[in-house]
Design goal:
Elements lengths: L14 E2 L6 E8 L3 E7 L3 E8 L2 E5 L2 E4 L4 E5 L5 E5 L3 E8 L12 E4 L2 H12 L8 H16 L2 E2 L3 E2 L4 H12 L7 H7 L4 H12 L3 H10 L1
Parallel strand pairs: 1-3
Antiparallel strand pairs: 2-9, 3-8, 4-7, 4-9, 5-6, 5-8, 6-12, 7-10, 10-11
Length: 217
């Protein structure tokens, strides 16, 4: 996900973009956030939030990395993005040939102190692609650290159901909202039993467990 490809609400099909660099680093700053069209690319991508909120949706799952974690997207993973106001994040594009040691599915990966230091150093020096042997070594260290980083099952499933979708979207904006499922059912003109069934059907978990996972992200 690169800055040039993040265009608010354009079109309905995914954007397919390409790169010729084995590893490239981009820093994205968004004074004003928003939702962005779907895209996919032939390289892998690691997204690390420096400030604000960046969320990625892959199929029926929503990924929002907590501090010291980043979101990993394998090559050819179609995804949509949402960013809050005043967000800043680092995007590491990795050639598909270098992705064999990284997870084969979208996931959240722990960022070690070493990986974080390398990311911030490259960003501070405005290194987008390696310029010398030292940069190449740093990129290799970064790749080694990400490959060895623990992945966590902390994604949030989403729902295309109109009523349940309204509830989940509202909670994503205000995670501290403590309204009960019954309260939400009344709010979206449904029933508690109906929403509970749709939680199990679409999310694979109860409403309470989903909200708890939201607050952990």
């Amino acid at each position: 996900m690169e800055a040039d490809n993040l265009t608010n609400n354009l079109g309905s099909g995914p954007v397919i973009v390409s790169s010729q660099e084995p590893i490239a680093l981009n820093r994205v700053r968004l004074p004003r956030g928003g939702a962005f069209r779907a895209e996919r690319h032939p390289w892998g991508q690691f997204v690390y939030s420096v400030a604000g909120v960046i969320e990625l949706t892959v199929k029926s799952s929503r990924y929002a990395a907590p501090p010291d974690f980043g979101v990993w997207l394998p090559p050819q993973t179609e995804h949509r993005a949402w960013a809050g106001d005043r967000s800043a994040y680092i995007v590491l594009d990795i050639d598909h040939g270098l992705c064999t040691r990284l997870p084969g599915a979208a996931t959240i990966i722990a960022v070690s102190a070493i990986a974080k230091a390398v990311l911030l150093d490259l960003d501070r020096r405005s290194v987008d692609v390696p310029q010398n042997a030292e940069d190449c070594r740093l990129m290799q260290v970064l790749l080694d650290q990400l490959s060895g980083g623990a992945s966590i099952d902390r994604f949030l499933p989403v729902s295309a159901d109109r009523a349940l979708g309204q509830v989940l979207e509202a909670l994503c904006k205000h995670p501290g909202d403590n309204r009960s499922l019954l309260d939400w059912a009344i709010h979206v003109h449904s029933t508690e039993r109906t929403l509970a069934r749709r939680c199990q059907r679409d999310l694979g978990m109860s409403f309470a467990k989903w909200r708890q996972r939201l607050r952990l992200t």
